[in-house]
Write a structure and sequence with these properties.
By secondary structure, the protein is of the alpha/beta class. It has helices at 10-24, 46-55, 60-78, 118-127, 146-156, 170-173, 178-182, 194-205, 211-214, 218-229; strands at 2-5, 30-33, 81-84, 136-139, 162-165, 185-190, 233-238. The protein has a single domain (2-238), classed as Rossmann fold, CATH 3.40.50.10320. α1 (10-24) links the parallel β1 and β2 (30-33). α1 (10-24) runs parallel beside α3 (60-78), α1 (10-24) packs antiparallel against α8 and α8 runs antiparallel to α10.
Length: 239
């Protein structure tokens, strides 16, 4: 099984408990993070610098390097192998042909028109590594993050059967946003063991730099994830 992760946390955030249980059952699980490339040497935008400060990092290079290390620790806690793609920096670092930031103020926006061809490049990168019998799990794109939308388009460009996961924490903060995205899909509930829930919480805790941004505190994260996962994790398939 391969969980496609837009950023260096999304797969474990959204499905860490299920991943743990799958690995315990003898299934090989990998998380493939697409949007985690090292950005060019250009100075980061003021918006990116604010985020660096919030996360406790001094530079774009340090941000990517240490967040990759966080992701490796989180994946190890739930038993998954990690694949980090180069070539696709986070949207906060991407610039247009004129050198101006494409996302200068916000990331929860529609993808910039200048990036209409980006999903096809991501699709090609995925194709170069996929095997015919790999089971793929794709983000639904709840929350409307530009990178999540682009990654979903890229995965759908593979034209192969897909499962979809709900993007955590966005589905927890805005559960009503899920309904229109899955109206035409068939859900399958997969129970998560108590050990899986614990590993899920511990895996997310490895993303220390992102905790205050995503959940306010580790305690709040544990409460939200345990409440969400206790009834099982839903994956969706479109017929």
């Amino acid at each position: 099984w391969i969980y496609i992760s837009p950023h260096l946390d999304d797969a474990v955030l959204s499905a860490g408990g299920l991943i743990y249980d799958q690995v315990r059952a003898g299934i090989r699980v990998e998380t493939w993070t697409l949007v985690c490339g090292f950005p060019p040497e250009a100075d980061p935008s003021p918006f990116a610098q604010v985020l660096h400060f919030q996360w406790g990092f001094a530079s774009a290079e340090e941000t990517v390097r240490l967040r990759r290390a966080e992701d490796a620790r989180a994946a190890a806690r739930v038993g998954a192998q990690t694949v980090h793609f180069d070539g696709f920096p986070d949207c906060i670092y991407r610039r247009g042909a004129d050198g101006e930031p494409l996302y200068p103020l916000d990331v929860f926006v529609d993808p910039h028109p200048a990036e209409a061809g980006l999903p096809a490049k991501m699709t090609a990168a995925l194709l170069s590594r996929l095997a015919s019998n790999d089971v793929l799990v794709c983000p639904l794109g709840i929350g409307g993050h530009a990178d999540h939308i682009l990654v979903r388009r890229a995965v759908e460009g593979l034209n192969r059967p897909l499962w979809y996961y709900a993007d955590v924490p966005y589905v927890l903060n805005r559960p009503e946003a899920l309904t229109p995205l899955v109206r035409a899909a068939r859900p399958k509930v997969r129970q998560v063991s108590s050990a899986g829930l614990s590993a899920w919480v511990e895996g997310i805790a490895a993303y220390a730099s992102q905790m205050s941004t995503l959940f306010e505190s580790p305690e709040k994260m544990q409460e939200m994830v345990e409440t969400y996962g206790r009834e099982g994790l839903r994956l969706w398939k479109f017929e």
